[in-house]
């Protein structure tokens, strides 16, 4: 009799424990299929910049961090870290190897080394979270240039490609060359343009002012002082619409050339951090771009205040990266 009672008690206890286990499993299942847990960053938040302190990308990152904090959007502090080398490659490698939801990277343009043959870096190793600002370029010539319009410049190139020299701030395998080639293609120019590489834009400007090179592309903050002093003349803005800061400069599109050139500032995360992490930073950055402090920064730097969320920003990166990859294949 005692044995029978003991068996009954064990059976009841087993059934109770199984029921608790089933309820717990059901609750866990509900949690997994229901609303995702909210992400909260843990400070200090590491903010990587692949370029030297004081440059445009570094300044953008530090302003993003300060604005997020001072606007109360993100309470945790930021630690901006400059990891220079390889045109941003060192910083990308650091994010890929050690990144998490508390590690951001300030991005600019596309990373051309990512598309070079043998590169260990690919875009799918990262998540472009948001574009926080945009920047376009101006096609400029010296004040004494014989070319007073884009038509005059490229018709001269078409007639004699070796006559017109184009100054580059870097080598001849950059995105900038892709854009020059696209303009040339619209004029039916198939031959190689005469490119003169330099070590940075600071070398290009005196060559342009002296007339030793005929044309170059400059961002508005660099060009504006020379335009105001009439030392340079802008033939076109490479944006979809006229720039608010330089409204008198016509776009290439207005002149019948469907070519644009943008160098957006954005923020990357490491791939695989989780949708809730991406959503947190995307929303925080969007709110930041609507703040007065950020708008003041945008105006002072002559940026375009244009926000893109992760999906749209990623699509832009993929499209520009594909175009650049095709250009590199054509150079082999």
UniProtKB/TrEMBL annotation:
Top-level lineage group: Bacteria
Alphabetic keyword roster: Signal
A Pfam family matched in the record: TctC
InterPro entries attached to this UniProt entry: BUG (IPR005064), Bug_dom1 (IPR042100)
Signal sequence bounds: 1-22
Similarity remark: Belongs to the UPF0065 (bug) family.
Name the record gives this protein: Tripartite tricarboxylate transporter substrate binding protein
Upper classification of the organism: Bacteria, Bacillati, Bacillota, Bacilli, Bacillales
């Amino acid at each position: 009799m005692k044995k029978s009672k003991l068996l009954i008690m064990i059976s009841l206890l087993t059934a109770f424990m199984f029921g608790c286990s089933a309820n717990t499993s059901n609750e866990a299942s509900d949690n997994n299929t229901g609303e995702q847990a909210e992400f909260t960053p843990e400070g200090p938040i590491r903010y990587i910049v692949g370029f030297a302190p004081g440059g445009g990308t570094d300044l953008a990152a530090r302003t993003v961090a300060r604005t997020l904090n001072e606007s109360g959007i993100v309470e945790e502090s930021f630690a901006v870290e400059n990891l220079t080398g390889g045109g941003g490659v060192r910083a990308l490698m650091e994010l890929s190897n050690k990144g998490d939801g508390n590690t951001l990277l300030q991005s600019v343009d596309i990373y051309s080394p990512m598309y070079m043959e043998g590169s260990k870096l690919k875009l799918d190793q990262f998540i472009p979270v948001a574009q926080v600002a945009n920047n376009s370029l101006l096609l400029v010539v010296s004040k004494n240039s014989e070319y007073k319009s884009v038509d005059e410049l490229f018709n001269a190139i078409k007639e004699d490609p070796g006559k017109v020299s184009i100054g580059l701030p870097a080598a001849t395998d950059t995105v900038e060359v892709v854009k020059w080639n696209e303009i040339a293609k619209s004029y039916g120019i198939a031959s190689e343009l005469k490119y003169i590489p330099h070590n940075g834009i600071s070398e290009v400007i005196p060559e342009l002012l002296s007339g030793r090179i005929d044309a170059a592309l400059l961002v508005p903050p660099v060009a504006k002082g020379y335009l105001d002093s009439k030392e340079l003349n802008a033939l076109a803005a490479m944006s979809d619409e006229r720039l608010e800061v330089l409204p008198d400069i016509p776009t290439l599109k207005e002149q019948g050339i469907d070519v644009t050139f943008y160098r957006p500032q954005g923020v990357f995360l490491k791939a695989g951090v989780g949708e809730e992490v991406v959503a947190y930073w995307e929303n925080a950055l969007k709110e930041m771009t609507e703040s007065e402090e950020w708008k003041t920064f945008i105006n002072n730097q002559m940026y375009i205040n244009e926000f893109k969320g992760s999906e749209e920003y990623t699509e832009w990166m993929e499209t520009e990266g594909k175009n650049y990859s095709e250009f590199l294949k054509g150079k082999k």
